[in-house]
Amino acid sequence: MTLFAGLTFLLSFLPERATEKQRRIYNGENAVPGEFPFMVQVLADIEFDSAGVVTQNLCGGSILATNLILTAAHCVVRDVSGSGNRFEAQDQIYNPIQLGVWAGDLDDFYNQQFASVKAIIVHPDYDSYRVMNDIALILLEDEVQFNKYTSPISLPADVDIEQLYAEGSPVTVIGWGFTEQGDTSHLLQKLSYEVTSRDTCIESYGDQIRPGMLCTGSKPMERRSAIGDSGGPVFSKVGEKWVQLGIVSWGAEDQDESSFDVNTDVSYYKSWILSSINRISSEFVREYIVSDETEHIVLEDLPNFTYRHFTVRPGETSRYARIRIKDSFLTENSFISVYDGVPRQNNNQMLAQLTGEIQHVDVVGYSGNTLTVVITTGNSVKCDHLDLTLDLVNEASSEHRLICSPGYTACLDNLYCVPDVHFCNGVGICNDASDEITDVCETIKGDTNTSTYSINACVRDSNRESEPPSSRCVRISNSSPLIMSIAVLLGFLVFK
Class of 29-276+468-488 per CATH? Predict the structure, then answer.
């Protein structure tokens, strides 16, 4: 497993589509170490401040295989519009280097494992406003080693579905979310309750309950999942086998004891899960070996929440890979990033971070002969297309120079690009704080040639409903990723 050394990323500083409201879980119990070995923590949006405190978004997830995690879509997707307006939300899938997964006994250094993330696949019809199709898969860069503290959970067998999902059937939910004390728990919490019928749940939520949602709990709702439990499993036992029925998704305010927990129904999405498992390693992660003949890649009609990750290696070790991007267009919440070598949490050598109209950009590595390309799209894709040419050159780039799109400027340390509007706003974003250096800010603010691009041809339909459900995400501070003693920001996302 790799050592964890989180890095900030291009948009980790943008305002989240969130409002702060306190919620709690009541009457949970401490789980015994190893009792639920399929449970993992999914950490995202990793930032280090000057005091070494790491700030993260906390979610749960479940192990399906040594390299595969099931979680909620809202755990790996965020709004990058910065507008704060629920009707203008622009959801973007996380870049994998923003994520990490912890498995095992997280209260015991010697029995925990950390895995980097290689790929993400989100349901293409995920709707963050209505919290519909709230499901995603994570492919790990590092395989989890199965032992007493780490092992997979099963998907429900067709023959068991009717019994498992019947009203009143017992289920368990687990997580590190908020407790009755009003803060998150460093010990895994467990809560046993029951499946709620769809009709009963609709009486509480009306038409917010859509196909693919599973309600759990019983009135009064004094025992429930809470903030920080998002993405974790809702499960039962069939014989000696743990079976996952749901994924923690959203719920009512903690003061409301008349409404139920709402989860993603795993049985409803079972066929999507199985087909995505077959696709994630082949369609979303690829390697190209480039020889003297150029390789031409055209990606058109990209769907929402596209993820593409591919490495480009020269067939001759004495030569260097080059990527040419031309006559391309990506909507405002979609990006193509090119890295020198293979990006990881402790090795983020970004060479280009591009969005909008891309007329002609050549990228060549400077410290190695391999390049990695990461392509991500959001929820408002209408006309994205990429034209890429892969070939070889004889010389490496002479320096590490980060190429940014118009309207963005690279931090002086060349780690990532920052939107110009965030320079000199009193909030340090760059790791080296160069976005708050007076000379740099004045140069950017005074550059009248810096312009943004138009996306009028790719506008999003803003026909939305009035009252979105409340998600179960939490943003936390943690002085060490290894010791989950947490200082908490009392808040949770309200999806717009």
Answer: mainly beta
